[in-house]
Design brief:
Blueprint: E1 3-4, H1 15-21, H2 37-57, E2 64-67, H3 70-85, E3 91-95, H4 100-111, E4 115-119, H5 129-135, E5 140-144, H6 158-168, E6 171-175, H7 187-190, E7 194-198, E8 209-213, H8 239-251, H9 254-274, E9 278-281, E10 291-296, H10 301-310, E11 313-314, H11 330-334, H12 339-343, E12 345-349, H13 356-377
Parallel strand pairs: 1-11, 3-4, 3-5, 5-6, 6-7
Antiparallel strand pairs: 2-8, 7-8, 9-10, 10-12
Helix pairs in contact: 1-8, 2-8, 3-4, 9-13, 10-13
Bound molecules: pyridoxal-5'-phosphate (PLP).
Pyridoxal-5'-phosphate (PLP) binds next to helix 3.
């Protein structure tokens, strides 16, 4: 049996999404900026997708800026706000468990003269809104706190943080790549200024995403050129990708999140009850519906991933982006794990396509392989 439990890294393209995209890769190939019929057809498709996404987040269509994905959207949010508001101040606040595309962008901004505060998180990976408030100073221009963590699934108190930012007149950005369509997110109600989303986490194609930029937010483009996307992001639109992204959002249902949660809960329950010397990482309740992250004491995570892979099961030792590195996950270190504990940690992320039978098979195999590895190592 093959069981893909790495849906936080990426998801397969849904059949309906693929069907919606195909005409835009073949006969409807126009450039959305062209004036002729081919161009108008492409433009119409792009605008339809924009509307679907805008509606989902309760923003207006012209607040949806298509990009090449979550990495670009996060770069755009941080650099764009930094460059456009540097006369007001050069201070940015973020936190230690952000995705590398936020943290590395912050490091780069520091290298050119910006100041960044990296807030600590508690043992569940949660940021304290009071800490955000305390860190705000006269020069602060932006607070960037992710909605849900990609490794441990912890959901941040973004409503409270957004309110604080509003009170202090500071822009608030949230990276919602992992939570989009899984957790409700009403931009107007919460009062968030910028939101990052990505298509391939929600059964859409790779290489497409968006940054929501609320009206009135002062942001500089980072891609200069022909002035596409309301002058905010130049480059010929990835029409088929955008159509696929729109379709993925349109077909995302609450039942899918419920299904993922049910499977996630089976994983958590069985692993904690049936495998000795295990700890669940992340928040016990405020966590993404599809995330289960464990430390298996005395185990080398990479070895376990490879053994599971050999038996048809896909999971990950951390975020996909860092799983080729040998350094322990910065997220697990930030919640207080020792490096060897972080190395012994695995993430299972469920998807709408997974079945209960698959989950039970995967846990049966996991139990065997943990036992085998512990026998070999003799550590536990
Ligand atoms: C929380 C988070 N932010 C950003 C990204 C980057 O998104 P993309 O792969 O679309 O560049 C990811 C993907 O791993 C993610 O999980």
């Amino acid at each position: 049996m093959k069981v893909y439990l790495d849906n936080a890294a990426t998801t397969p393209i849904d059949k309906e999404v693929l069907e919606a995209m195909l005409p835009y890769l073949t006969e409807k190939f126009g450039n959305a900026s062209s004036l002729h019929a081919w161009g108008r057809e492409a433009r119409e498709a792009v605008e339809k997708a924009r509307e679907i996404i805008a509606k989902k987040l309760n923003v207006t269509s012209n607040e949806v800026i298509f990009t090449s994905g979550g990495t670009e959207s996060n770069n755009f949010a941080l650099k764009g706000i930094a460059f456009a508001n540097k006369d007001k101040g050069k201070h940015i606040i973020t936190q230690k468990t952000e995705h590398p595309c936020v943290l590395e962008t912050c490091k780069w901004l520091e290298s050119i003269g910006f100041e960044v505060t990296y807030l600590d998180v508690d043992k569940y990976g949660m940021v304290s809104p009071e800490d955000v408030e305390k860190a705000i100073k006269k020069e602060t221009i932006l607070v960037s706190i992710m909605h849900a963590n990609n490794e441990i699934g912890t959901i941040q108190p973004i409503e409270e943080i957004a309110k604080i930012c509003k009170d202090y007149g500071v822009y608030f950005h949230t990276d919602a790549c992992q939570s989009f369509t899984k957790e409700p997110l009403d931009a107007k109600k919460i009062g968030v200024d910028l939101i990052t989303i990505s298509s391939h986490k929600i059964y859409g194609p790779k290489g497409v995403g968006a940054l929501i930029v609320r009206e009135g937010v002062k942001i500089a483009p980072i891609m200069h050129g022909g002035g596409h996307e309301f002058g905010k992001r130049s480059g010929t639109e990835n029409v088929a990708g955008i159509v696929g992204f729109g379709k993925a959002v349109e077909i995302a249902k609450e039942e899918h999140a419920k299904h993922m949660r049910k499977l996630r809960d089976i994983i958590i329950k069985r692993v904690l009850e049936e495998i000795p010397k295990v700890r669940l990482n992340g928040h016990p309740e405020k966590r993404l519906c599809n995330n289960a992250n464990f430390t298996f004491y005395g185990i080398e995570g990479e070895a376990l991933v490879m053994r599971l892979d050999a038996r048809g099961i896909a999971c990950s030792t951390g975020s996909a982006c860092s799983s080729h590195k040998l350094q322990p996950s910065h997220v697990l270190l930030a919640i207080g794990l020792k490096p060897e504990e972080a190395h012994g940690s695995l993430r299972f992320s469920t998807g709408k396509q997974n079945t209960e039978e698959q989950i039970n098979y995967a846990i049966d195999v996991l139990k065997e392989e943990v036992e085998n590895l512990r026998k070999i190592s003799g550590i536990v």
